[in-house]
């Protein structure tokens, strides 16, 4: 029964058709007492019809119900006296309920005015209803209005709850989408920092080895050794990065960062051909994991860009200073243009390295600036706030 009720709730025309048929059946049962059975049966069929579409076209069906009630009164007065007493006239009260619950009080008040006119006309022409019957009609209409007010309030509450649930679902989906997008950005940034750095070093060393192979075998051998070392370091760093991305906390990965990690990075870039001056001040080994990794990646990306774009004899000065509540990073290189050792293998940047640095610094709540100085050098500066908690 409950399932059938829920099924009807989603099909208002079907439910209202059942109501109309029920009123028709009650009217048919009373046909035996009527003098003009044809007229009585005709209105028994016509009066319930507007109820079928009362929730689809409430104003039009309410007007149709009033017109049928008035015609029924006139026919009873002119043609078939005594044939106007129809159970289906309960539909007038049902229409009042419909207007209050689904349209509004203003339309319902206008409808009440027409009901009063219909009642006055019926009393004048047919001298009914009288006394108790009239009082009963007034009570029925009052109950219809009250019930409609109650159900209207419940419908408004249900609509508000549904709207809030829809907003909550949308917010949940949006947060999930944002979380996925942020995770994809984080993975892309980490992989770019690891892979772009290693590949840039390998390409530069490979170009140098190729041109030194015939004339300077020792230089070529050192370049090839640097390529092998860079590849192994890149593979190890890639594994660490993947592990870090898969877990919330990976304290075993911390030794690669800090002052030792920056020094190792500077030494690797020296071996790749960049003259790096390194200046580290303050305690850099006990800062948070996120800030330590951020400093490492900023220096790494800046030196990689120096190697790729700062000319044939690149130079860079790296300064990392820890202050009371922040870490200051500055990387200044010699500027210039990309080395054209072999035009066929010249490296062109995608611009994603600088974007990745800005994203990383923004996540950490810091400030980053990058640009060319007046003397032609390129400088990257970042300030990363310390969270106060240490690893």
Automatic annotation (TrEMBL):
Name of the protein described by the UniProt record: histidine kinase
| Tree of life domain | Bacteria
Q: Which InterPro entries match?
A: DUF7134, HATPase_C_sf, HATPase_dom, Sensor_HK_TwoCompSys, Sig_transdc_His_kin_sub3_dim/P
Keyword Transferase attached:
yes
Whether ATP-binding counts among this entry's keywords is: yes
The organism encoding this protein is: Nocardia halotolerans
Q: Where is the Histidine kinase/HSP90-like ATPase domain?
A: 290-388
E.C. numbers: 2.7.13.3
Which reaction is the catalytic activity of this chain? ATP + protein L-histidine = ADP + protein N-phospho-L-histidine
Q: Which UniProt keywords apply?
A: ATP-binding, Kinase, Membrane, Nucleotide-binding, Phosphoprotein, Transferase, Transmembrane, Transmembrane helix, Two-component regulatory system
EC top class named in words: transferase
Transmembrane stretches in the record are: 12-32, 38-53, 60-80, 86-103, 108-126
Matching Pfam families: DUF7134 (PF23539), HATPase_c (PF02518), HisKA_3 (PF07730)
